[in-house]
């Protein structure tokens, strides 16, 4: 299993970023995908999740209305569209897939929201 995140960077408050998670090594369309984030000194937290077919989604209260989590089951890629970014969104963002009891993580991508 390999998950490769990209798309992070430095953005001003109120700006947008689109993160990508390219997946390989498993049947992507069969599994839910999640995005987590970890800010310095804080625990990793679940940000958003999407069902295998894309029909069901979950968002943390802190990002509801600002983030969306689309997926492309043809390109084996999950996305995190982040709008109206705030300084408190600054963190390393990780994508995750759980296959039974086995969870797999990407290497993470840094998002910094600052003026």
Describe this structure in words.
The chain is mostly beta strands and 115 residues long. Helix content is 0%, strand content 51%. It has strands at 2-6, 9-11, 17-24, 33-38, 45-50, 57-59, 67-68, 71-72, 77-82, 91-99, 102-105, 109-113.
Summarize the model shown.
By secondary structure, this protein is mainly beta.
Which secondary-structure class do the elements indicate? Answer: mainly beta
The low-confidence parts are none
Q: Count the DSSP helices.
A: 0
Number of strands: 12
Largest sheet report: 7 strands, mixed
What is the straight-line distance between the termini? 37 Å
Helix content: under 10%
Please, what is the average pLDDT? 97
H/E order of the elements? EEEEEEEEEEEE
Give the overall silhouette: globular
Gyration radius (Cα, Å) is 13 Å
Task: List key phrases describing it.
single chain, mainly beta, seven-stranded mixed sheet, 51% strand, 115 residues, globular
Secondary structure: elements and pairs:
Elements: E1 2-6, E2 9-11, E3 17-24, E4 33-38, E5 45-50, E6 57-59, E7 67-68, E8 71-72, E9 77-82, E10 91-99, E11 102-105, E12 109-113
Parallel strand pairs: 2-12
Antiparallel strand pairs: 1-3, 3-9, 4-5, 4-10, 5-6, 7-9, 8-9, 10-11, 10-12
């Amino acid at each position: 299993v390999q998950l490769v995140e990209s798309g992070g960077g430095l953005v001003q408050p109120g700006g947008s970023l689109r993160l990508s998670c390219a997946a390989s090594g498993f049947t992507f369309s069969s599994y839910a995908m999640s995005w987590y984030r970890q800010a310095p000194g804080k625990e990793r937290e679940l940000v958003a999740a999407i069902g295998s077919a894309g029909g069901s989604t979950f968002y943390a209260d802190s990002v509801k209305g600002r983030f969306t989590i689309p997926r492309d089951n043809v390109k084996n890629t999950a996305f995190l569209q982040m709008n109206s970014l705030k300084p408190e969104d600054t963190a390393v963002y990780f994508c995750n897939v759980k296959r039974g009891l086995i969870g797999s993580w990407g290497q993470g991508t840094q998002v910094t929201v600052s003026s």
